[in-house]
Specification:
By secondary structure, the protein is of the alpha+beta class. 25% of the residues lie in helices and 25% in strands. It has a 4-stranded mixed β-sheet. A hairpin with a 5-residue loop joins strand 3 and strand 4. Helix 2 packs across helix 4. The longest helix is centred in the C-terminal third of the chain and has 14 residues.
């Protein structure tokens, strides 16, 4: 997902908000990789909320970079347990990508043979830049 933030910007604070009542097991990197892929439901709204929450400290420092994250998706379609697959080199970007995904993304979880939702995963690359081009709102899987 390419995120380009036009300047100036109003900062919208984000908070980690999983809001899931499900118990999610701790999984290793290899166990996560075996989970089926969830589908992002709210691509356009998610993209806009991520853009609107671009952290002010990054703007002040003109920080840009790419972070790759992975989240577990619960059976009710909420993201949780975010992991950084590849750091952007800046912890604020990495945290921003995780917090925004957990807070704003909604998913259709994968299903089993009976059509019942199962624990699944979703991975995404976030490229953060400052400038005037329009943001890409299509989420691409990695």
């Amino acid at each position: 997902m390419q995120i380009t933030k036009p300047l100036p910007l109003l900062f919208a604070a984000t908070a980690l908000c999983a809001n899931t009542q499900e118990k999610v097991p701790e999984l290793s990197f290899f166990e996560r990789a075996e989970l089926p892929e969830a589908t992002l439901l709210n691509t356009e709204q998610f993209g806009q909320k991520i853009i609107d929450s671009y952290p002010m400290p990054l703007i002040r420092r003109d920080v840009q970079g790419t972070a790759k994250i992975s989240v577990l998706v619960t059976t009710n379609g909420r993201a949780t347990n975010c992991q950084i697959k590849k750091s952007s080199g800046d912890s604020i970007i990495d945290q921003w990508a995780c917090r925004g995904t957990v807070r704003y993304a909604r998913f259709t979880p994968a299903t089993d043979e009976e059509g019942e939702p199962v624990l699944s995963q979703w991975s995404q690359e976030f490229t953060l830049t400052l400038g005037n081009p329009q943001p890409e709102t299509e989420a691409s899987q990695i």
